[in-house]
Amino acid sequence: MEIGSTNWVALFRFRFMKILFLNGPNLNLLGHREPEVYGRTTLTDIEANVRKRAAQLGAGIDFRQSNLEGELVAWIQQAKGEFDVIVLNAAAYTHTSIALRDAIAGVGLPTIEIHLSNVHAREEFRHKSLIAPVCLGQITGFGPNSYILALDASINIKAK
Ligand code: DQA
Predict the structure, then answer these.
(1) What is the pLDDT of residues 42-90, one digit of tens each?
(2) Cβ distance 143 to 115 under 8 Å?
(3) Which among 125, 10, 93 is positioned nearest to 58, based on CA atoms?
(4) Whose CA is nearest to atom 9 of ligand 1?
């Protein structure tokens, strides 16, 4: 539906899109955990910033954390039909989990991989991401701002 130069379908999707933020193991410890690597910002602070930005953009978000691989798999499966984009900080499961990779590929929702730290500048075992090949892209190394960059990227995916 196009009236004049306005793409109303894109506008509708833009305003009402829903983004699922998933956080993997140990991210509940942010703020206290290895602050020299991850900083002092807690996951609650990050969620508050994401909610603020999402409200400005008119997007709906859900923000969850689990230390359990199976729970993350279940949430990815359940996202189909309810969310438009998944933003995933899979934490250590990034480097180990074929189950998460298969869930992302199986569900087929656009998924953005994110990390607070620059995983490529750290230990070699963090250079390999099992989920990267089934994600749209990777945002890594911007601290809590990685979440905001992923939110902005999500909006642009659907606005296209
Ligand atoms: C992390 C990087 C992972 O390698 C690590 O296991 C984490 C956090 C990050 O956000 O920088 O737990 O995903």
Answers:
(1) 999 999 999 999 999 999 999 999 999 999 999 999 999 999 999 999 9
(2) no
(3) 10
(4) 115
- What is the dihedral angle through the alpha carbons of 112, 74, 18, 56, rounded to the nearest 10 degrees? -70
Atom of ligand 1 nearest to the CA of 115: 10
Q: Which residue CA neighbors atom 7 of ligand 1 most closely?
A: 91
If you search the block for the tokens 């193991």, which residue do you land on?
25
Q: Considering the entire predicted model, what is its pTM?
A: 0.90
* Cβ 146 vs Cβ 140: under 8 Å: yes
Where do the domains of the chain lie, and which CATH numbers do they carry?
2-159 (3.40.50.9100)
Token pair belonging to 76: 């990815």
C-alpha 112 – ligand 1 centre gap (Å) = 14
| Cα gap 153→113, rounded to integer Å | 11
CB 87 within 8 A of CB 137: no
> For residue 18, what are the contacts with CB-CB under 8 A and spacing of at least 6?
59, 60, 61, 62, 82, 83, 84
Partners of residue 103 on adjacent β-strands: none
